[in-house]
Design goal:
By secondary structure, this protein is α+β, with helices and mostly antiparallel strands. The chain is 15% helix and 41% strand. The chain has one domain.
């Protein structure tokens, strides 16, 4: 229910929700919206990959 409220209020923005859990990294997370951060799985470990900067956004 919290995540639903966050995504409804974020409109065109970005959001990240992280919480402690019993896994190798000790946490889990979920993202919303278009941003440079993309969650990926590497051998069962959740990491964040940064996508290249879009040159159109910096003009």
């Amino acid at each position: 229910m919290i995540w639903y409220q966050i995504t409804e209020l974020a409109d065109e923005g970005n959001a990240v929700m992280a919480w402690a859990t019993n896994n190798e990294s000790g946490f889990e997370f979920q993202t919303f919206g278009e941003n440079r951060r993309e969650p990926i799985d590497v051998d069962g470990l959740r990491l964040v990959r940064f996508l290249p900067i879009d040159s159109d956004q910096n003009s």
